[in-house]
Each structure stands twice: as structure tokens, then as C-alpha cells.
Amino acid sequence: MAEEKDIGITAKKSENHSEWYTQVIQKADLIEYTSVSGCMVFRPWAYSIWENVKKFFDIELKKRGVKNAYFPLFIPETLLKKESQHVEGFSPEVAWVTHAGNTKLNEKLAVRPTSETIMYESYSKWVRSYRDLPLLINQWCNVVRWEFDNPVPFLRTREFLWQEGHTVHATQKSAEDEVYDILDLYKTVFEELYAVPVMKGRKSEKEKFAGALFTTSVETFLPFGKAIQGATSHCLGQNFSKAFDIKFLDENEKTQYGWQNSWGLSTRTIGIMIMMHGDDKGLVLPPNVAPLKAVIVPIFYKEKDKVLAEANRIKERLKDFDIELDDREEYTPGWKFNQWEMKGVPVRIEIGPKDIEKQQVVMVRRDTGEKSIVKYTEVKEKLAELLDYIQSNLFENAKKFIEENTVETKDWAEFIKAIKDKKMVYAPWCAETECEDWVKEKTGGAKTLNIPFNLPKKIDEKCPHCGKPAKVWCYFARSY
Amino acid sequence: MAEEKDIGITAKKSENHSEWYTQVIQKADLIEYTSVSGCMVFRPWAYSIWENVKKFFDIELKKRGVKNAYFPLFIPETLLKKESQHVEGFSPEVAWVTHAGNTKLNEKLAVRPTSETIMYESYSKWVRSYRDLPLLINQWCNVVRWEFDNPVPFLRTREFLWQEGHTVHATQKSAEDEVYDILDLYKTVFEELYAVPVMKGRKSEKEKFAGALFTTSVETFLPFGKAIQGATSHCLGQNFSKAFDIKFLDENEKTQYGWQNSWGLSTRTIGIMIMMHGDDKGLVLPPNVAPLKAVIVPIFYKEKDKVLAEANRIKERLKDFDIELDDREEYTPGWKFNQWEMKGVPVRIEIGPKDIEKQQVVMVRRDTGEKSIVKYTEVKEKLAELLDYIQSNLFENAKKFIEENTVETKDWAEFIKAIKDKKMVYAPWCAETECEDWVKEKTGGAKTLNIPFNLPKKIDEKCPHCGKPAKVWCYFARSY
Predict the structure, then answer these.
(1) Which of B39, B109, B148 is nearest residue A72 as measured by Cβ atoms?
(2) Are residues A68 and A190 both part of a single domain?
(3) Nearest residue to B193 via CA among B329, B51, B339
(4) ipTM higher than 0.90?
(5) Do both A56 and A90 map to the same domain?
(6) In a domain? residue B168
(7) What is the pLDDT along chain A (480 residues), one digit of tens a residue?
């Protein structure tokens, strides 16, 4: 019989977060390392979370008339170079295919770091008239960005999975409306699926997407004192349509360049969720993304057949939920409790001979450890209720954490102290890149995250760094 | 107003099949060519067919306990080389990543042509005990095989999409049972979704997968006189488990090597369907994979608002089906008829002022052109019925075509004439590779397809090529 210590998480989240994270992702069967540096296996437990997110998001896209397609993995070098800012942003981290078999290729091929260039080559053939617009296409695929920094599974890996939406609109307004609509959808994915509160806003000029007119993002702040960008929705303006010749005849028979957007959400989101909700026992999964909502652990004593039969009856009552009955005989109930806690299953359902006598089960919440005695007749309602509680409790706890770790200040001494104390800062800012660079240097790495949309029209404050009149309020923090 | 001739297929399927195919895949909005030679865009119309197949297949896999995961795109050269037959089979067509940004990599990385090696590296860490088995994992992904022959969209492209299942079993029997079960599932995909009849069988030693113990396949024969392999299910035996050290302790605490399978179905299937069912008007889609089951084309005359209102009511009655109302005003009904026929939508529903008077619509079958007058109250039942008819009619026609083009013979003169006449041959065979090579040479390219499973125990015939006693009956044809 395996010993319990073999499988437990031995690092504390608050003490050694890096070791804690490394243990959780492996011991909860999320990730396997491979011999390709920076590329990991998404094991079924992790992939299934991604499938849940995909399912939700795909339905939402279809409601909006967005259609899925698939474009080539490879982008010829000349094509990648067509938009100058774009290639500058991406070429340092492009993986290049130079040979096929023993043959050297005439032109090297980029493994897509993102698909603007390969997609827009086709778009220029498809867009002719205002009647072809909006053109709304999405793809679910893998992308490669050869990071030279230390990889962090899910958050910074050389290959990851994502969706990338690429659209063309007849007017700037239509494009911009979509940018914000998709950003709202990303907020929904984070807040209602992953139970992770996010801040919506606009990226600074320095931090915007390479080639975009402007970039919007959702950002959050993690228990390790670092912020992270959750997803981005870019308005590309006419930069790419001019570079790729995406033109159309408008209703007045005039030639116009298309207004374009691109927007993406990746498997990075899984890492954010792990870091936000996980605890010293392992992963804590929000019910709305959990591959299993509950696991039934039978406690046999000497009445195995009887207990198993009852456990199966409970499972049948709960067939509308994704649940599993862990009837393995080679492990003790205690070992199973630990394992399923480590894997983050929202609710554990225990049933033993004494429970059967009373026609009841014990339900245990993963987030709080709270136990409930539940009559057979009420298991369905109670499980649904507990899952709701867990989902909102995780969200509320995360929200409280972020609020407690956000310092609003107009004072530079306070600003720098907050960053040193691993907090996030909300401060007025002149919106100049020079000042942004200076802050980064003086704080040991704090970057601008984003600028909220609903700022007061008139900002009276001064930028605490340079003293000039502030143009915006902005979030700042060290970040992943 | 666009002219009808602009959009129609101008080549005849029976006269110039290559030009016909090239027109259909482009004009039916399935494929776009790109500047990456051999790599094409799967446009939404094609991708949606693949989504329908994925959905069906994924549910079937989940019923069997197979879990989805995702493994890295890149495979280090040393890892790819671990199984000697395997690397021999694949290395001539591997795309190699040699640089990242401006940095030369220490070891070149293969873009996966298939994932045995990268997956089994992990499997060796996961399999310890018979209790870990069977290990049943699948992934949906892109793969790259750098074909130097002329690419044929869908059928032979340098990048394609597929699922690859990779499993480990404790016993040979468990592995073999799965090989045949999955092969049956592939047959179901072809016959019940794509309406394409297939022959199940075992590949010859020469044609088996590089590194497999044996390979099973489904094959079919296309209207252009060429056969094609539809999908393969391989029993890898212990070849890879020995190369990758995938071992487990059995119930008697003895160390055993795992028995492995791999099996795959790709976007090639879409091309097979197009070639099998398409006609001189374009694509013909079997209802079970069609993105749209029917399209409603309103015929306005001077009563636009009225007709549109009624058309919308019909659409509402048919909301359980994937259908579309084509209310574009800039095109004539005739233009729309042609376009939807070209795109292969199974049923067209026409409604005009005269139909409204009689509370009826006209339904037109794409496969036969047959028209039915249908009362409003019966549209739902009638559409369901027509879709069933179309699905089975396409299958029956294809079956008849294959039967009429298969020549069973024990005579070499007949054999060679049949191949010359672009038929498929079913003949006894000594099962020697030498004889297989000789046939290929003498017939100008006819290869063995597969050997059916249910052969008589005793075969009295002689091999018509070499005259030695035949060991099997086998299908032979020129093939893609």
C-alpha cells in the first residue's frame, strides 16, 4: 500500500511558492516535463480544464457569428516581415524551420508565434465588398514563442495552446465595439469559470501588441506578489490591412482599408487559476472548470459489497454531474482523500456502513474542509448548492485578496514601498513611456499593467514619478 | 449582380478530375492556397465538417475511457531515433527546427510527424503497475510530413489535422481487441458519417506502419480509378515499450513490457468524401457531416416582406436542424441555388408567393435534384426523412460504384487488364514482399491495399503473379 507522504505536497504556498507550484502541477497530474526544454505535456487533468473553457468560449463565439477555421503552422520569413512593428516584436523568439528531411529549404519558415500574417494573406483575397464584412474567424491551435527566460509551466512555456480571433470590419466603430465585447467575454471566462477577478483596461503604448493601434487586457494579481496579464483583445486599426492590402468597396463604391482586430486567450489561464486558488494541500478547482465536480469515496470496513452497492446508487442519483466513484481496493480511504484533495476536486462524498444505516452521506468541501451530513433524498440539491457556494467563495476570497493587496497612492515613497512589499499599485501617471521605464528601473521591475476605461474625465493629480500632470490612473506591479 | 458563370464548376468530374477537384475545393469555400507550399487553409466550411467528425469521435472515445491530452509539437532528434524502424520511416519527411531567434539550437528538433516518441518518453514515467493499465490517451493536433510529391489538398498536404490515440495494455489480447474496436469505429466514421463504404483489413508487411507489429486499415476506392487508405489502427506490440522502457509489475510482481497501440484519423477523410460524392455541380455533402442541413431560399417577386416573414416562420419550425435562411438581396434566387449546390448543402427549401398561398414549400434534394412539395405542417418530418434518404442514397451509390469497379480474379492477364482499366483487384497472393514489388512494377504502380480479416481458413488458389501457393486474398490498386 502506497504511503501517504509519497503523494502529498511538501512545500508551503506562503513560504516557497516556486517549489509549491512545481509540486502541485506535477502531483496533481497536470503537467509532465519532457526532454524538450520549455515544452510540457498537458496531462488529461489539465487538458480537460482547457476543454471546459473551450466549450464555453466556442458557444459564445458561435452566438456572435464567429466561425472556426485552421491556418498553416508555418509562416515564410518574407510574410512575417510584412508589418514592420509586428516582426520586430516577435522575431527574437521565433522558432525557425530550415530543413525538411536532408534538404535545405529555399526560405526559412517561422513556426507561428501568432497568426496575423498568415491569416491576412488569405483575408486580402476574401475581402472585396462591404458585403463580405464583418469577416469573423477564430482558430484553436498551438503557437510557439521561444522564450529564453526561465519557463514557468502554463504561464511561460515555449509552446502553448490558445484561441486567436481575427476579424475585419468596415468601420472603426464596429471594430472597437468588438474589442470591448470580447474583452468582456474574457472577463467572464476568468470571473465566472476560473473564479479569478480581473481588471479590464488599456495597455500602455510600450506594452501594447506589436503592430496594434491599441491593446486592451484583463489583468489580475497573484498571491506571490506578482501581477499577470490574463488575455488581450487588440484593435489593429488599419496597420495590417494596409500592409496586407485588405481593401473593400464600401456602399458608395469607394475603396477602403478594413479595420481589424485580433484577440487571444491561452492555456496560461490554467496557471493563473492554480496560483490563485491552490493551497498547501494542492490544487483547488472552481466547479465551473473542474473535470470532476465530486468524487465518491466508499468506506468499506467489512461490508464492501453493501457499501459499494449504496455508493453506486448515490452515483446514479448524481448522474447529471461529472462525478466519479473511487472504488479502488488497493488504497485506503485516507489515501484517496489526500489524492483527490491534491487534485482539487470540489466536493468529496463519503459513504460508510453507519451512513447507510441513517440513509445519508457526508459531503466535504475542498475549499473550506467543511462537512455536511446529507440525506439520500437531498444529495442532488445539496451538491448543486455546495458547488455554487464553492464557486462564489473562491471568487470572493480572491477578490478580497486583490483588494487587500492593492495600494492606491499619489505619493512616490508609498508607491515604491508598496512594490517592495509585493503589492499592486494604482496610481496617477503622465502616460509617458520614459516615465514608465524609469519606474521599472527604480522599483526593480514594476511594469504598467493596464489603464481602466472608466476614469474621471478630469484628472487633477500629478504623476508621482515625474511630477508632470497625470493623464491617467494605471495599475503597476511586478509581473509574470 | 454577379454572373452565374463566375461561380460555377467548369470542369467535368469524369473528364478532368484533377481540375474538377481543384475547382470544387476552392469554389465551395473549403480550401485556400497559401504562400507555404503544400500547406493550405481549412476554411470554415471545411473545418466545420471536421468539427462534426471530432464531436462524434470524441464522444465514442470518452465512452471507452480514452482521455484527451496534449504533448509537445517538437521532438528532439535523439528521441525520434530511439526506435530504429520508426525513424527510418519518418526521417526523410521531417521538418527540422534548427534556430530560435538568432540562436542555433544545440540539438535540432523535429516538428512531429506523429507522436509515438514524445508520448512514450512520458509513458515510461507513468506506467509502473498493472493497475496503471490500460493507459488510454488521445490527442487532437496538427502534424507535419514534408511530402516532396505533388500535394493534393486534404489527401496529401505537408501539414494536416488528426487525432492520434496511443495506448498501453497489460496483455497482447487487450491491445489487439482495441486495435479492431477502433478500426470498427473508423469504419463507422466513414460509412455512417461520410457515407463512404470501406474495406477493413490488415496491411502487408511492406505497407505497415514504421515500427508496428501489424497495421490494420480501412480502405476505399475512388471514382478516379485510385484507391486510398482511410485510417489506420496499429498494434505496436512491444517494439516501442522495449525502446522506451515502458515496463510494469504484473499481478504476480513480475516485470513485463507493455503492449502498445496507436491509431489515427485525419482531415484526409474530408478529401475522400469530396472525391466520392461530388458531382459536376460541385460538392455533395452527406447530411451527417454537413455544416448546414438545409438552406431556405425565399423567392421574393414583389412581395419581399411577406415572403421573408413566412420564410422566417419555416426556419423557426426547423430550428432543431442546422439551417440557414439566405435573405441576401443582392443575389437572384438562381444564383443562390447554384452557390448552395456548389457548396453541397443536402436540401434546398424554396418559398415564394404562390407557395405561401398554398401553405407549402418546395424541397430540393442536392444528390438527385428531386423536388417535393411539402405542406407547412409537415416540413419537419419531411426534412428529417429527406436527410435520411440522402445519407443512405449516397452510401448505396458509392457501394455500387465500388462493387462495379472491383475485379475478383485469379488470373494474371485479367489482373493487369483490370488495373489498366482503373479498377480495383481482389486476388489471391503469396504474401511475399518480392511479389508485391513485382506487381507494382508490372502494373505501373498498383499496391496492396489490405488483406480482409475473414478469409477462408484454407486457400487453394495460387498467387497469379508468382504461381506459388497463395496465403491470403488481398486488394490491389493504384492509390493516392
Answers:
(1) B39
(2) yes
(3) B51
(4) yes
(5) yes
(6) yes
(7) 344 445 699 999 999 999 999 999 999 999 999 999 899 999 999 999 999 999 999 999 999 999 999 999 999 999 999 888 888 888 889 999 999 999 999 999 999 999 999 999 999 999 999 999 999 999 999 999 998 888 999 999 999 999 999 999 999 999 999 999 999 999 999 999 999 999 999 999 999 998 999 999 999 999 989 999 999 999 999 999 999 999 999 999 999 999 999 999 999 999 999 999 999 999 999 999 999 999 999 999 889 999 999 999 999 999 999 999 999 998 999 999 999 999 999 999 999 999 999 999 999 999 999 999 999 999 999 999 999 999 999 999 999 999 999 999 999 999 999 999 999 999 999 999 999 999 999 999 999 999 999 898 899 999 999 999 999 999 999 999
Is the peptide bond prior to B134 cis by the omega test (within 30 degrees of 0)? yes
The answer to whether A267 touches A154, Cβ cutoff 8 Å, is yes
Angle at B337 between CA B335 and CA B342, to 5 degrees: 95
Contact A72 B40 (CB under 8 A): yes
Describe the crossing of helices B268-277 and B17-27 by its angle, rounded to 10 degrees.
110
> CA distances (Å), A73 to each of A45, A92, B31, in order?
26, 18, 15
* Domain-terminating residue out of B356, B386, B416: B386
Nearest CA in chain B to A126: B32
Same domain, B239 and B101: yes
Q: Residue A101 is nearest to which of B43, B74, B94, comparing CB atoms?
A: B94
Contact B71 A41 (CB under 8 A): yes
C-beta atoms of B74 and A39 within 8 A: yes
Cα–Cα dist A211/A232, whole Å: 14
CB contacts, 8 Å: A131 with chain B: 328, 330
Phi/psi of residue A295, each to 5°?
A: -130, 135
Residues B237 and B122 in one domain: yes
Q: CA–CA separation, B142 vs B399, rounded Å?
A: 31
Q: Are residues A373 and A451 in the same domain?
A: no
Number of domains in chain B: 3
Q: Are residues B421 and B348 in the same domain?
A: no
Q: Which of B69, B72, B330 sits opposite A47 (nearest CB)?
A: B69
Nearest CA in chain B to A42: B70
Residues B256 and B121 in one domain: yes
Residue ranges making up the domain that contains A348: 294-386
For residue B162, the chain A residues in CB contact (below 8 A) are none
Give the best residue of A43, A52, A97 to mutate against chain B (max B CB count within 10 A): A97
Domain match, A440 and A360 both: no
The verdict on a CB contact (< 8 Å) between B70 and A96 is no
Number of Cβ atoms within 10 Å of the Cβ of B180: 14
Nearest alpha-carbon partner for B220 in B238, B257, B195, B244:
B195
B34 → chain A, closest CA residue: A122
Contacts of A161 in chain B (CB under 8 A): 70
